[in-house]
Structures are given as structure tokens and as C-alpha cells.
Amino acid sequence: MGTTALTGRNGLVQRYFYFAMSLLMAAIVGAGFSRTVNDNLFHPAMPRPFILWFHAAAFAGWVIFFIGQSTLVRVHKVSWHRSIGWFGAGLAAVMVPLGVATAIIMDRFDTVQLHQSDGNAFLSIPFYDMITFGVLIGLAIYWRTRPELHRRLIFIATCGLMDAAVARFDYVFDHNLFFPCLDLLILLGVGRDLLVDRRVHKVYLYALPLLIVGQNLAIYMWRSNPSWWQGITRVIMG
Fold this sequence. Notes:
Blueprint: H1 3-7, H2 12-33, H3 37-42, H4 51-74, H5 78-112, H6 124-142, H7 147-159, H8 163-166, H9 170-174, H10 178-196, H11 202-224, H12 227-237
Helix pairs in contact: 2-4, 2-10, 4-5, 5-6, 6-7, 6-11, 7-10, 10-11
């Protein structure tokens, strides 16, 4: 297939990129959680806190929502996309506090019931995820009338939710590779811009460096667990 067909205004990359990425992210979620969902949620040796079911439903719902919204844009149902978008805004508003609460409750469960140690330091990862997701979605809502900004912010925010799925692979988790995996997904968006628009959109130019700084700080707080972070987590956990 010629370059024009791939990179032209009506080319395959432009028409199918976000829809294809929504399916890829759904596949990542399925592949990652299929490794642990039975033992950790459906048939655990020790029942998990019920909030975990709400957490799983909300975050799975977001993936389905992202697929649906990408499909509506693809079939040119933009008015439907905008109307259903408010459902997504409400869902995102629930997901942020739900994600934080689930992280705290599951950390207490892991410490008290499963007798795992040093779990408090890991709170930096879900906290970072939820802060980043909330900020990106908030900006996407604010710039909802500017499609080029809006769609990239939603895309980056959704990529950021994939770390829980890719971290289900032991090698990825043990070597702190879940954030680089997310960044590779985002870089596919950069590649899309280079192919279609011949330039990288400013959303990526601003967001990626900030995300990488935040990711490294979250990893440092988890793996090094500095005294100031220990003090914060002790207050949070009570």
C-alpha cells in the first residue's frame, strides 16, 4: 500500500488509529488481568474487600467507554459522541476517588489479612495514576470543543490506566517496566502525528516530559521509600 494511502487525510492511520488503539488497550487489559483475576477476585482463597468489585467494574467500564467513543467518531456519530461524553466525565469523576480509596483499603487488607510488608510505599503508584488521570481528563473536558487537544488528552489518560494490566506480568513488575510500557503506547500517538500531520502535537510535547518526571518520582517513592514518604503514608493509613 502506498504512502499516500497511509498518511493522506483520509488514510488508514488517520481513520483508524484511535479505534485500533482502543482495541489494543482492551487486549492488554484482558491479557494482563486474565493472569490474576480468578485468584484475586472471582475465586480468592480469602475474600477481597467488596470495593474491589466496584473498582474493577468502573475501570473496565472506562475501557469499554473508550472503545465506544472511538467507534462513534469513526462512524461519524459526533453528536452521540458528545452526549455520551458526559457519562464518561461522570465515570472519570468517580474513578479518581474510587481508585485512591481502593488502593488504601487493599493496602490495609494486604498488610492485616495477607501479612504482606512494605505495602504502604507502593501507594505512590496508584496515587500518581489517579492524580495524572484526573488532571488529564479535567483538561480534556475543559478543551472538549477543541478536538485535536481533547482526543489526545483522553488517549494519554487511558494509556495511563494500563499499568495495572501490564504489571500483572512478573518481569514487567519486578523490573519497574510498567511505566515505560505506557510511554510506548503514548509514543504510538506521537508516531501517528508524525505520519499523518508531519509534526508532533504540542499535547505530547508538554505531557510526555511531565509524565516521565512524575513516573520516576513515583517509582523512587515506592522503591526507596524515603522518610518523608513514610511519614505521609503513616498518616494516610492511620
